[in-house]
Amino acid sequence: MTEPVPDVTPQDPAFTAPGRFWKGNIHTHSTASDGVRTPEAVCATYREAGYDFLALTDHFMAKFGFPIVDTRPFRTGTFTTLLGAELHAPATSLGETWHILAVGLPAEFAPLQPGETGAALAARAAAAGAFVAIPHPGWYALTAEDAATLPGAHAVEVYNHTSQLRTERGDGVYLADQLLAGGRRIGLIAVDDAHFACMDAFGGWVMAKAEANEPDALLAALKAGHYYATQGPLIHDVAWGPAEVEITCTAAASVMVLGRGSRAVQSVAPGQTRVRLTHTALQAGGFARIVIADAFGRRAWTNPVYFEKGTR
Ligand SMILES: [Zn+2]
Ligand SMILES: [Zn+2]
Fold first, then answer.
1. How far is the CA of 295 from the centre of ligand 2 (A)?
2. pTM score > 0.85 for this model?
């Protein structure tokens, strides 16, 4: 005999894990591929702008010598780096070369193997310990079917700043929501993807929760989902209860809790810094995620939380 048990109250580990938030951009290019500034200059640019960490992710292609730039010399007492790359292989459903973001790669990660597909390359990066993300899906019209071939990807870029500035296709929310509606669990990141051919820095980043601003701790935080993404607004706390969630943030014009399909609850009013919303209508959809937007339309996104029903 079975009987329903209460829903498990979800938790967002970004707000329950120990430590503090560290600001980092985890998708950037340099002269090691098609960027304009040297690796040292890119690191200095972000360090001087107050970022705590950076991942340089040059294009891992034969024509650039499959670079994984050693940024360790550019670390300081208050600024660190993660090694990484943007990986490429054939081919998306539109026949385009895959772009796959890999943060936390070993320096000796092997070049693309003969016949290796995007799916195989992404799996190899994840097996090597990397945080793997699906970059700028809107930029090249990536579909949910494409994304389904990368089951090991940890996250989707919901915002890519250079894609937004250069093509108006910086949005990846559509893909994240389709994957979540299909039952997949996946994180949401925002990045610059700066190349510095134009001023495409400082438009999107992650706030990663860790006890120290150290590469191993930051990589573990990313892989565990201990982060949120933002274009500027800060989310100080998210406290989930069985029926309500309380969000504490910098001044927001909209505070939204979004679920499967059209499920949503929200508070729209100027200057909100603490909002309580009832999320019971979202639970049957399986997930909920929070978005806040400030008066300038800049957004911050939490990772989804998941509602689990049980029987006994
Ligand atoms: Zn790319
Ligand atoms: Zn890129």
1. 29
2. yes
